[in-house]
Amino acid sequence: MSEVPVTEVPVVIVGAGPTGLSCGIELKRRGIASVILDKGCVVNSIYHYPTNMTFFTTPELLEIGGIPMTSLNDKPNRTEALKYYRRVAEYFDLAVRQYEKVDRVSGGDGAFLVETTRHEREPRAYRAGKVILATGYYDIPNLLHVPGEDLPKVLHYYKEAHPFSGHDVLVVGAKNSAAIAALELFWSGARVTLVHRGDRISDSVKYWIKPNIENRIKSGEIKGYFNSTVKEIRDDEAVLATPDGEVVIANDFVLALIGYQPDLRFLASVGITLDPATNKPRLHEMTFESETPGIYLAGVLVAGMHTNEIFIENGRFHGAQIAADIAAKQSGLTA
Question: Are 218 and 248 in contact (CB under 8 A)?
């Protein structure tokens, strides 16, 4: 068996999203080399967003590295964002390793060993002084925990409406993702039912979407069940628990769009614990260094269960604070 190659690098960044790229840029500006690892492609989460998605924010609030972002409209779409972040990574010549999954981080501050698998078959390893985790939370969906959730027709990600045209589709959730999916499905000819455990469409749904989905439900064009939950999923039916009792509806697909969470098991494996009340990791508020010396957290991981507190718009600034702390400590060690 051949020996696994080990690459020496000052900093390993886990996650090639906007925050991870920003960390790499800020380190490079301070003369510190890094490798950015991602189990998917560059900005993998954005790639998996719905095909026709438009961001809720303006281009300048998505910019990293001081590179201007342009858009044909007031708000950029998914395709424009993908192109922008690719070009930023190329401009700064960042060492991004795509399709390389981090399996294990061991060792300690100044001498971490990061073990990976590239393309699910090729083992690699990196020896690094510092590690930055910028993995986001989009990879692990929240589950319904009901019988039938493992059926192939149950999906936790929505890409586009076309494949569901002419089918009975149940959308679970009432925030932005669920509302947009329900509307696009309806416009594409699907028979849509929306179920939500709350009593109405979430107040967090964007102002230009909320009245649209509410009007479709009010008119009966989209069937809405509130204060209700999914009880069971069957091959061609779904069972709902509603205030009026159990309801069985025809069903071809279920889109469970009820949110996502960070990989808590991985965080625990590197010695990071969470505040039990908020699920926020314990870390230094200014430097973002975790309770495990030498391991930093960036982006939405900082927010714990309150993922709506951290977006690209503010998570992109974490890189400068982290890089400044790493540079200061490096300078102190070599002084």
Answer: no
